[in-house]
Design a protein that fits this description.
6-stranded mixed beta sheet, alpha/beta, 12 strands, 4-stranded antiparallel beta sheet, Sugar ABC transporter ATP-binding protein, globular, 22% strand, binds adenosine-5'-triphosphate, 303 residues
């Protein structure tokens, strides 16, 4: 399967205006400083149900800082963060989860040697029987994990297999299905395709689209404009902590998005400089050129 063949984008059709109403989660002029380092400044972002909001940017652009604010790991130091229209200041990811905001990080919080079904319920195990005879309801957990994974279109041969034996893509999918099952309304995905090949990336993008089609608001953080464009409804490009671009799908082409990601203006300047170097190379080094061959006084015959 190639990513081009996935056809995952089925949310807001190109040309349709963004849906109105109160966003599930929203940043308004938000920012974050770590001591003297201003990692994020004056950022607006709206997460809406049934839409994928992509956050793109180069290394150090502020993507992690943004999703850490949304998922309750860090507190913003400027602007506002609203959930269902009301300002919030989460103290921990637990607070965010309680409001339906779940984050799936690259280093998934799974136990590799535990079976898939056990990982699916990790920290939220189903029990049965009255105290003090309460025990894990293994059969119910297996049944639920199986039906939830299937309803997301994830077919695993054996739920008893250790999660560590799954591919990276499958593990991401299990984590997404898990967040959906436990009531996430907003799914925050940190570079879910970063370590994956084309085929596995396609599988993960398909489940992102499935979560979106279930009505979740998805925040997809990625370096990859091609992946973003396959599923994205809105694109926010960060550059040195500020929003360089915030555009709906109908307002930006893949080519433009790629150009912004690559640092369009900088690339143009570099191209210009390279052209000059090339031109100069043909004519010999210009005066004062640091790359010009070094001549010594001795060679010139001076004492
Ligand atoms: N805990 C921290 N303390 C101080 N500075 C930080 C901290 N976390 C991030 N920064 C700085 O904030 C800026 C934005 O970093 P951030 O990790 O949010 O970027 P990013 O877009 O996620 O980058 P990457 O793709 O490399 O992970 C960087 O200059 C980084 O050095």
């Amino acid at each position: 399967m190639t990513t081009d063949a996935i056809g995952t984008h089925g949310g807001a059709a190109a040309g349709t205006p963004p849906p109105g109403g109160t966003p599930l989660a929203e940043l308004r002029g938000a920012g974050k400083s770590y001591g003297a380092v201003r990692a994020l400044h004056d950022v607006d972002l709206a997460v809406r149900p049934g839409r994928v909001t992509c956050v793109l940017g180069d290394n150090g652009a502020g993507k992690s800082t943004l999703i850490k604010i949304v998922s309750g790991l860090h507190r913003h130091t400027e602007g506002e963060f609203l959930v269902d229209g009301a300002p919030v200041r989460f103290r921990s990811p637990r607070d965010a989860l309680d409001r339906g905001i779940a984050a799936v990080y690259q280093d998934l919080a799974t136990v590799p040697l535990m079976p898939v079904w056990r990982n699916f319920f990790l920290g939220s195990e189903t029990t049965r029987g009255p105290w003090p005879f309460r025990r894990l309801d293994i059969a119910a957990m297996k049944r639920t994990a199986d039906s939830e994974l299937r309803s997301m279109g994830i077919a695993l041969d054996d739920l008893e297999q250790p999660v560590g034996t799954l591919s990276g893509g499958q593990r991401q999918c299990v984590a997404i299905a898990r967040a959906v099952h436990f009531g996430a309304r907003v799914l925050v995905l940190d570079e879910p395709t970063a370590a994956l090949g084309v085929k596995q990336s396609g599988v993960v993008l398909k489940y992102i689209a499935a979560a979106r089609d279930r009505g979740l608001g998805v925040v997809l953080v990625t370096h990859n404009p091609h992946h973003a464009y396959l599923v994205g409804d809105h694109f926010s490009v960060l550059r040195l902590g500020t929003l360089e671009l915030s555009a709906d799908r109908s307002e930006v082409s893949l080519q433009e998005l790629t150009h912004h990601m690559a640092g369009g203006a900088e690339l143009a300047a570099l191209e210009h400089e390279l052209a000059q170097v090339h031109h100069a190379g043909a004519e010999g080094p210009p005066e004062g050129d640091p790359c010009a061959p070094v001549t010594t006084g001795t060679e010139e015959g001076t004492p």
